[in-house]
Amino acid sequence: QVRLVESGGGLVQPGGSLRLSCAASGFTFSTYAMNWYRQAPGKEREFVAAITSVHGSTSYADSVKGRFTISRDNAKNTLYLQMNSLKLEDTAVYYCNARRVTEYWGHGTQVTVSS
Asked: What is the pLDDT, as a whole number, of residue 54?
């Protein structure tokens, strides 16, 4: 059974930091490209960051570039998103995504940036 379980969300003030984790099981994590997406209230889900399976090459949405860092630990089957200098507009539900021929999604973790 495939599972992607996000954690680490919460309430943080503008300028603060959070580290999201996504624990994967039920598939060969190391062979999948992994991504973070987010969905803010009333908006469509949008791409945040990606990391490739083998070389760990990364890419980011322009809105988070320089503030967020995606990483993975293939030995622990875990994906991370370090989020620094958080802004009000980063408030969203953050989803973990695994993609190869098939695609899997987690249920999301809420990140709220508020003063």
From this structure: 81
